[in-house]
Amino acid sequence: MANKYHVVGSFDLVADAQMLKIKLESEGIPVYLKDANILQAEPFIATAIGGVKVVVPEEYGQQAQAIYDQVRAYALDREGRPVVCPNCKEARSERHYLRNSLWYRLFPFLSPVAYKCLSCGIITRRDS
Hints:
With 128 residues, this protein is of the alpha+beta class. It is built from 5 helices and 6 strands; from the N terminus they run βαβααβαβαββ. The chain folds into 2 domains: 67 residues; 54 residues, no CATH class. A 3-stranded antiparallel beta sheet has the order 1-3-2. A 3-stranded antiparallel beta sheet has the order 4-5-6, with no helix packed on it. A hairpin with a 5-residue loop joins β5 and β6.
């Protein structure tokens, strides 16, 4: 029987993934960091492989996701206010990279600013 796993989150920096791993392990959840060794050797390919994935066994998936939702940092605008979703009006958005071309996959910092709402899933582009 194959083991099933749940990806709690993906991070561009190994240190960010390690912090979540420590928090989840302190709650008694077994955690695995996928692609961490690759990014330690070649940190510039983080966006190409999707970052370091924090993975837990499926039976701990909902518990781990709830813990991550409590401690995660949500996106802020240039004035330091939380980004509010225009669809559901929730302030639970993350920065989202539109990886729709090779150019933006190689240089994500040149990508237009976009946010993904974690409540309803809508992606909103900001031109300013």
